[in-house]
Automatic annotation (TrEMBL):
It comes from Neisseria bacilliformis ATCC BAA-1200. The chain crosses the membrane at residues 27-49, 84-106, 113-139, 170-188, 200-221, 227-248. This is Brp/Blh family beta-carotene 15,15'-monooxygenase. Pfam families: DUF6796. Keywords: Membrane, Transmembrane, Transmembrane helix.
Amino acid sequence: MGKTDAAAEAERPSEKRGGHVIATQPLLAAGALAAVCWAAADMLLVGFVPAPEKYPLLSQTLAADLDGKADLALLMLDGSPERLFWGVLPATFSAALYLAAAFGVYRLMRRSGAAACCFALLFAAYALSPLGHAGFYYLGMSAQTLPSAAPADHALLLAQFAAFYRMLAVHWWASVGCAAAAFLILLVQALRGQTRLPCAAAWFNPLPVGLAVGLSCSLFPHSPVAAAVGGATFNLAQLVFFAAALWFGRRKGLEAV
């Protein structure tokens, strides 16, 4: 005869450490706070509408040399160095909150191999994300030097831009890929009823929310507001998820479980 859900939950080894209950809600609140910090950082760092007509050197003359990255090179040209700088700090200095939130997400799931895999992927995603995010700063600053540089220096600066992009791409895609895989596992488990939240919480998973936000913003390609929101799509989607998890968790009495 199988154990009841209550008995199974009582045997979760992560319930206590040193005799003290580890509360799930504060971990989820840490995720919500981190999402706010990262969304604000995204808006400052990449929340621009590119203006290719203002920079013919990059949009036309050097477009072929940028190897398909002209749009990315144009993206942050209108951002002041101070804005790009502050577009990094709120994210990197709140990364620890996301790491704590990964454990909170694990606590929401029934103990299983899927839960462990979700936690490992999400923790890795959050650990990799600061360098992936900060990489945009270096890419933007590198691109800003090109319009004022002498033509003889373009080859060296283009090589630098390509090197910065390579470092950014490795960490950014690894981080986003791990996070997407983790939230896909969470989505499937939520639909299967294998989380401590109702199945309706699946609608607030970052994957469907992020898709909705991204598609909505794409309808307004020349809107600064849409550019800012679109640039922060995934972190805004995580904010919705953590806020919803807090709300559902409070209704189910998960404040200290």
